[in-house]
Q: What sequence folds into this?
């Protein structure tokens, strides 16, 4: 039985970070996360890893995942690129050969594990994003009340919403500063 190479592509994309692959092929990233693009001549780094699984060059417009990089960098076809990545990163995937039942089960298990990891990361991202949005909404409400309910000159009675805003806005500002932004690379 020959396993579908698309299953192997999924394992490759999920197992290797783009930065890891690019660095192993000689692309060096600066502290800001940019690198000189190997696909065109440039003096200012314009290639950036968008998230753990994609890259993009703002200079020439090329981009993609680890497989796309290897295809472009080495001038290979899709099958040859996944085979090269398999060998270069010692993934030991039984690409383009008959696999044993044990290997098939192992690959299927790995695909399920990757799907579970991806679902876990997505749930974590959604929880962080929801918490951040809740904090941001409350800060915006307090800020709005601080401006709208501000007493007029000579007014002696304070609106309770204004008082609440004065008491809480600095706390929410602090919470927003210490709460990490949701990581879009997940």
A:
């Amino acid at each position: 039985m020959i396993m579908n190479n698309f299953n192997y592509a999924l394992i490759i994309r999920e197992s290797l970070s783009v930065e890891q692959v690019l660095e192993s092929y000689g692309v060096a990233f600066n502290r800001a996360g940019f690198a000189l693009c190997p696909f065109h001549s440039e003096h200012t780094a314009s290639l950036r890893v968008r998230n753990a699984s994609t890259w993009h060059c703002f200079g020439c417009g090329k981009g993609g995942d680890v497989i796309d990089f290897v295809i472009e960098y080495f001038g290979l076809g899709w099958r040859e690129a996944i085979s090269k990545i398999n060998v270069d990163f010692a993934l030991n995937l039984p690409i383009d050969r008959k696999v044993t039942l044990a290997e098939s089960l192992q690959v299927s298990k790995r695909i399920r594990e990757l799907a579970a990891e991806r679902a876990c990361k997505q749930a974590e991202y959604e929880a962080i994003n929801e918490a951040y949005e809740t904090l941001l909404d409350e800060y915006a409400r307090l800020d709005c009340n601080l401006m709208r309910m501000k007493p007029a000159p000579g007014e002696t009675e304070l609106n309770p919403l204004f008082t609440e805003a004065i008491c809480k806005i600095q706390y929410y500002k602090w919470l927003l500063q210490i709460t990490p932004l949701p990581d879009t690379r997940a």
Remarks:
- The chain has six helices and four strands.
- The helical segments are 5-15, 18-24, 66-74, 78-88, 101-148, 160-178.
- The chain has two domains: 5-99, 122-178.
